Amino acid sequence: MSDCDVLVVDDQAGVRYLLYEVFREIGYKVSVASSGQEALDRFKELRPRVVLLDVKMPGMGGLEVLDLLRKMSGEVRAVIMTAYGEMDMVQKAKEKGIEYFIVKPFDIEDVRSIVCRLVEGAKVECEE
After folding, report:
1. Which domains does the chain have, with CATH numbers?
2. Cα distances (angstroms) measured from residue 31 to each of 16, 26, 38, 84, 85
3. Ranges 31-45, 63-77, 92-106: which has the least confidence
4. Higher confidence at residue 126 or residue 67?
5. Is the model's pLDDT at 89 over the cut of 90?
6. 3-class SS at 33?
7. The dihedral of CA 65, 67, 72, 78: what is its sign?
8. Which of 39, 113, 115, 120 could pair covalently with 9 via S-S, beta carbons 3.0-4.6 A apart?
């Protein structure tokens, strides 16, 4: 069973804080990470149901983090966050099987809808 519903990974403190508050307000257990390595450590410790992952971060980028997360756990429900205009990254993420993308600046209701769908789907699978 997961100890965390959502792991938010972004090098921008404002984005982490906003998403943390949004998901905490609706009752989810939320953790945050500001780097790729921190994301790997948190994932190993908490086994979140969904990972919100920024593509462009200093050091280890989001797609590299995704590859490493999948080595830890075959099934990783990830939502990629990318800045407007980084469509090459979106294409690379699609090639890695990512279905959900959030383009910054994002509509918080869109983010909430996507993540809730994924978290609730994960809960159903956990309960079966």
Report:
1. 6-127 (3.40.50.2300)
2. 9, 14, 11, 25, 28
3. 92-106
4. 67
5. no
6. strand
7. positive
8. 39
Tokens of 1: 């069973």
pLDDT digit string, tens, across residues 41-66: 999 999 999 999 999 899 999 999 99
Tell me whether residue 58 is exposed, middle or buried, using C-beta atoms within 10 angstroms of its C-beta: 0 to 12, 13 to 18, 19 or more.
exposed
CB 6 within 8 A of CB 119: yes
Average pLDDT over residues 13-26: 96
Could you tell me which residue, 21 or 128, shows the higher pLDDT? 21
Residue written as tokens 């919100």? 52
Q: What's the rounded Cα separation, in Å, for the pair 72 and 68? A: 7
91 neighbors 101 (Cβ within 8 angstroms): no
User: Whole-angstrom Cα distance, residue 74 to residue 126?
Assistant: 15
Residue showing tokens 């490493």? 68
**Among candidate residues 60, 65, 91, 64, the one with its CA nearest the CA of residue 7:** 65
